[in-house]
Design brief:
Layout: E1 3-7, H1 13-23, E2 27-32, E3 47-50, H2 58-72, E4 76-79, H3 82-90, H4 92-95, H5 106-113, H6 115-124, E5 132-134, E6 151-155, E7 165-167, H7 170-184, E8 187-191, E9 199-207, E10 210-223, E11 229-236, H8 239-252, E12 256-264, E13 271-277, H9 285-289, H10 294-302, E14 317-319, H11 321-329, H12 334-341, E15 350-352, H13 361-374, H14 377-382, H15 390-402
Parallel strand pairs: 1-2, 1-4, 2-3, 14-15
Antiparallel strand pairs: 5-8, 6-7, 6-8, 9-10, 9-12, 10-11, 11-14, 12-13
Length: 403
């Protein structure tokens, strides 16, 4: 039986990845940095290992991973986070002799993963993107004529929205820059796209410039509402999005899986590329329920096997229940929004990102781990308004398991 390792297996996306790989006949091994998490308790894993984090303990993780491979063997490895994907790319020359995976070479990887480098590729090739300036190339206190405010300071290599800061002028930008730079490294400034446009996430598997499969999610709701994670998505079709994403991947010579974040600018209706996530995203289950089995295809590509073809059937909904519930509770008109929030809740086209009836334990443990985070004063100070929702989250988590 082919052994497939899932790096950062504690994540919510590890649930559907483990399920699909297990159904395909692979032996699934989770490498987790915590037991108190979604992925660790999925019934679809054959083996679970607690290991150092590839984000905060890179050297320790490398030693652990190499020792495991040498002692136990591993056929394929698939990363769930930016950090484990970066680890594989950076150590590709050594690791490919020991285990198979599909990650671009490091220079190519960084051209996509580094947000500032990606924006330069878009600028030089007339690909729609927000106006961006490289702060590392400027003298502190200087200004760039024509740059639009408000804007966001963004670390070049931070995952998610960590380190992002909204500013209204160059004076405010440079005042905030030093603190962000000290924690996250080089940054860029990017025009802030105003509210009113749609947001999308596109998944593409590409080999030798040929798109093997693709899917798109329209991100309908987020939590927190400003710069948060998507909590309610719908699978859609949009040829233009696939076209500009494919053009970008071909320009940087990307091979394997890529996940794009895009935003529609309400001022002119254009859809702009924001970033590339070089790994399986949290919402990958949306692709699976739409008929496209990316987890299995990634393993097939890694092993240089024929890639199974799939018929993409959009129109399904994916809800990250815990976050979507917090979205509702953070809204001002909760009762008015409740009816629309419940739309498609019991539809056959509606699915839950953070659990399912046939694999309920991850849902319970994952929700509990979220509550533990809310009780942490440092985390709570960054996420105002969550405390009021804690008791209701517990009650609704248990209710959903009974539905």
């Amino acid at each position: 039986m082919i052994k497939v390792g899932i790096l950062d297996g504690q994540t919510v996306q590890a649930l559907i990845v483990a399920k699909q790989l297990s159904k395909a006949g692979f032996r699934v091994i989770l490498f987790c940095d915590s037991r108190l998490s979604y992925g660790y308790y999925t019934k679809y894993a054959h083996e679970r290992l607690i290991c150092p984090s590839p984000e905060t303990q890179i050297e320790e993780f490398n030693n652990f991973f190499l020792k495991y491979i040498e002692s136990n063997g591993l056929d394929v490895v698939v990363p769930m986070t930016d950090y484990s994907a970066k680890y594989l790319s950076k150590n590709k020359a050594v690791l490919l002799d020991k285990v198979a995976f599909s990650i671009p070479d490091y220079e190519i990887f960084m051209n996509g993963y580094d947000k500032n480098q990606l924006m330069k590729v878009c600028l030089n090739n007339n690909i729609p993107h927000p106006m961006t300036i490289d702060l590392s190339s400027l003298e502190k206190g200087s200004e760039v004529m024509g740059f639009k405010f408000p804007a966001l300071i963004k670390p070049n290599q931070a995952a998610g929205a960590r380190g992002f800061k909204k500013v209204k002028s160059f004076k405010e930008l440079w005042k905030s820059y030093e603190t962000i730079y000290k924690e996250f490294g080089d940054c860029h400034a990017q025009e802030f796209i105003p509210k009113g446009g749609r947001q999308f996430e596109a998944q593409i598997l590409i080999k030798e410039n040929e798109v093997l499969m693709s899917t798109i999610n329209e991100q309908i709701r987020y939590y927190p509402k400003e710069g948060g994670s998507s909590c309610f998505n719908q699978t859609v079709e949009n040829d233009h999005i696939i076209e500009i994403c494919t053009k970008t991947l071909r320009l940087i010579k990307w091979e394997g899986f890529a996940d794009f974040d895009l935003i529609e600018d309400p001022r002119d209706g254009s859809i702009k590329i924001m970033e590339i996530n070089p790994r399986v995203p949290a919402c990958i289950k949306a692709s699976v329920i739409a008929g496209v089995d990316f987890p299995k295809a990634i393993v097939e590509l890694s092993l240089n096997q024929p890639i199974t073809t799939y018929a993409y059937k959009p129109g399904n909904y994916l809800r990250y229940f815990s976050l979507d519930l917090l979205w509702l509770f953070s809204s001002q008109n909760k009762l008015k929004l409740l009816k629309s929030w419940l739309n498609n809740f019991f539809s056959r086209k509606h699915f839950f990102q953070d659990g399912e009836i046939m694999d309920p334990v991850p849902f319970i443990v994952g929700a509990f781990s979220g509550i533990v985070k809310q009780l942490d004063p440092k985390f709570r100070s960054k996420k105002r308004g969550l405390n009021k929702a804690l008791l209701f989250v517990i009650e609704m988590d248990m209710l959903l398991l009974l539905v």
